[in-house]
Write a structure and sequence with these properties.
Distance between the termini: 59 Å
CATH architecture: Alpha-Beta Barrel
CATH topology: TIM Barrel
Radius of gyration: 21 Å
Largest sheet: 8 strands, parallel
Order of helices and strands: HHHEEEEHEHEHEHHHHHEHEHEHEHE
CATH class: Alpha Beta
Low-confidence stretches: none
Oligomer: single chain
Strand content: 5-15%
Shape: globular
Number of domains: 1
Number of strands: 12
Mean pLDDT: 90
CATH superfamily: Aldolase class I
Structural class: alpha/beta
Helix content: 40-55%
Length: about 400
């Protein structure tokens, strides 16, 4: 199997993750909604733009550091909240948070994670935010807020694109459950993945940690936690719930799942700190717009007073730089770091961050930019459009 030293790009980490993970779990990681058009479009949409570099610039020193939510980051890349990291590696969310701390960026812990809010707070001193939903049980949401405050999380992230669960057909076909219980058809896909199976000796806890206490003993079987969470998604959530959450949380507040300029303006009036421009990795609404296509209109709508984080489709440093040129303040990655987690735990997550950071620095240098704030829309031209002549 390919070692991490031989992984030179995110696709290499993806191949190693595929070789490591049982087939149903890899499909859970890779899958999107319906025909997966949005999933594919999230990345392919970057191909609509080409660079227009400035030459003869002194790029002997390129600094990708930036600030987000009031904190300095080593680069414009952070780790998105992703559910059930234990599926991919026995060190689960701890490994990802440690890698983010070593790199110097934010780690987002998901409400659907396999690690408790307080456990991660005790184990990680790096930048972190907690991602929450407005559940039918508002008491559960309040509990999450209290634990996030007590744990010293620097920000809160509310996801708003899941009033109901998306149609993820790969999981239906593979029989994916929590905890994993392979069907006879999928059993061979587990039996041959000895690296993943070896992790069972270290950690067998496949559950959504922060809701497990809400279940009684008879409800803790296969998929019951997922059933509980799906039943807790509240299709009646509204802007009043965001106003309530903003009043309850006294730190930076991120709104995740916004694509519409009107929604961004309304969120700005309520007082959110940042918008995570996201279609949930193509896992919710099929045919939702690609996040990169939404950045310019969102920036025009909110001006420079609201931070925009592009979430979805990043596979290269060129993607990161294109997003910054379009008006994003930073980019958030999900699948790329999970490939690294599956491939090599903490070292694999750090490898994913280092790959994207190196590619970002190289792209900046070749573009003629030495700092993040030097990147702008003048560096981009739509594919197929002639470069405009300057006015005479």
């Amino acid at each position: 199997m390919m070692s991490l030293d031989r992984c030179h790009n995110i696709q290499d980490l993806q191949r190693r993750a595929r070789a490591t993970l049982p087939h149903p779990i890899y499909d859970y990681l890779e899958g999107g909604a319906d025909d997966e058009w949005s999933l594919k479009r999230n990345t392919s949409a970057f191909d609509n733009w080409q660079f227009l570099p400035n030459t003869l610039m002194n790029v002997a020193s390129v600094n990708p550091a930036t600030r987000l939510l009031g904190h300095k980051l080593a680069g414009p890349i952070l780790l998105s909240p992703t559910g059930m990291s234990r599926l991919f590696h026995h060190d689960k969310e701890f490994a990802a948070a440690r890698a983010a701390e070593r790199f110097g960026t934010f780690y987002g812990l998901s409400a659907m994670g396999s690690t408790r809010i307080e456990e991660l707070a005790d184990s990680s001193h790096g930048l972190k935010f907690f991602q929450v939903y407005i559940f039918k049980d508002r008491g559960l949401t309040r509990e999450f807020l209290a634990k996030s405050k007590q744990g010293g999380y620097q920000a809160l992230c509310l996801t708003v694109d899941t009033p109901i669960a998306g149609n993820r057909e790969r999981d239906i076909y593979s029989g994916m459950t929590i905890p994993p219980r392979p069907t006879l058809r999928a059993l061979a896909g587990f039996a041959t993945k000895w690296r993943w199976l070896a992790g069972l000796a270290k950690n067998r806890d496949f559950f959504i940690a922060n809701v497990a206490d809400r279940l009684n003993a008879t409800e803790r079987g296969t998929s019951s936690i997922i059933d509980f969470v799906n039943k807790q998604f509240d299709p009646s959530i509204s802007w009043q719930d965001l106003e309530w959450l903003a009043s309850e949380w006294d730190g930076p507040l991120i709104l995740k799942g916004v694509l519409s300029p009107d929604d961004a303006r309304r969120a700005q009036r309520i007082g959110v700190s940042a918008i995570m421009v996201s279609n949930h990795g193509g896992r919710q609404l099929e045919c939702a717009a690609a996040p990169i296509d939404c950045i310019p209109a969102l920036r025009d709508a909110v001006g420079n007073d609201l931070e925009l984080i592009l979430d979805g489709g990043i596979r290269r440093g060129t993607h990161v730089v294109k997003a910054l040129a379009m008006g994003a303040d930073a980019c958030s990655i999900g699948r790329p770091y999970l490939y690294g987690l599956a491939a090599g735990g903490e070292a694999g997550v750090l490898k994913a961050l280092e790959i994207l950071q190196a590619e970002t620095i190289r792209t900046m240098a070749l573009l003629g930019a030495t700092a993040i704030d030097e990147i702008n829309q003048s560096h981009l031209v739509p594919v197929g459009r002639l470069v405009a002549q300057p006015p005479s």
